[in-house]
Amino acid sequence: MTRHECTMCNRWNNDSDLRIIPLKHSFVTLNRDQFFPGYVLLFTREHVTELFHLKPRMRGELMEEVSRMAQALQTAFQPDKINYELLGNMVPHMHWHLVPRFATDPLWPRPIWSEAHGELLLTPEEYQNRIELIRKALA
């Protein structure tokens, strides 16, 4: 798969309405489906598929970006747990699904992939409100 064909490489531009923050090694966007409130995607700026493809220093700095985002989601949404998913089977570009989880959500405590669910799409204003909530928690 070329960089041009990669949906993750193009996500920052294609989903510009969902942008949260550009970081040194990654970009962060709100996931369009907000069935799980605060669900974000953090994906590497560089088209890589595996953590071991990164030099140790960059890998460490990237993990700090993942941790910083998780902490912001904890502050913004006060979930019972943050789920970290790094798969890449369907989209071979390193990206994390950072998902605030609540004991009250319909799939608790199972993984978010354990059962199909309807997409929860928000209005443009609701997306922007969630994005601002996360940005405020990052500050």
UniProtKB/TrEMBL annotation:
A Pfam family annotated for this chain is: HIT
TM ranges are none
Which parts of the sequence form the motif Histidine triad motif?
A: 93-97
Span of domain HIT: 7-108
Please give the InterPro entries that the UniProt record associates with this protein: Histidine_triad_HIT, HIT-like, HIT-like_sf, HIT_Hint
Q: Name one GO molecular function term.
A: catalytic activity
- A GO biological process this protein is involved in? nucleotide metabolic process
Full protein name = Histidine triad (HIT) protein
Organism in which the protein naturally occurs: Pelobacter propionicus (strain DSM 2379 / NBRC 103807 / OttBd1)
